Amino acid sequence: xxxxxxxxxxxxxxxxxxxxxxxxxxxxxxxxxxxxxxxxxxxxxxxxxxxxxxxxxxxxxxxxxxxxxxxxxxxxxxxxxxxxxxxxxxxxxxxxxxxxxxxxxxxxxxxxxxxxxxxxxxxxxxxxxxxxxxxxxxxxxxxxxxxxxxxxxxxxxxxxxxxxxxxxxxxxxxxxxxxxxxxxxxxxxxx
Length: 191
Known about the structure:
The structure is a single chain. By secondary structure, the protein is mainly alpha-helical. Helix content is 76%, strand content 0%. The chain has seven helices and no strands. The protein has helices at residues 2-14, 17-36, 52-83, 85-88, 97-107, 119-146, 152-189. The mean pLDDT is 91.
């Protein structure tokens, strides 16, 4: 199918194999985390529910979340090594020149390409932040829960709030990716 071929070409042009693989794995794991979290359950004393669905969903969520920690750290490390901090966070360096160009394109109802220091790169950097904060807060909750720390309930509350960031990111990033692919397909057809 044409859309699949164009999608694969799009990713091959923009991401080396390791990044493509990690991107796909993280996407699958995050989507599974969001889905499985709807079936989790705890007892009144803070233990994992003994109801089979809730019990297994909770442990799947915990194990998947813990596996996301090293995968996320490796992914972020590779991307920062590949592009550098300024690529994803140009505003921290006072460089908004590409952002201004991207905004001008958006004002003309044109979708800007992924450019260093541009809006797409900044959104990717925000995604790194969202992913890292959710994974780190979830891991922190697990450790505090396992060791019976009094602050475990506070940490899980923070983790749940931060999860909204990654859910919003998945929706926004996914929608923009699909829009880019649709435009690529149109561009291919016009050739």
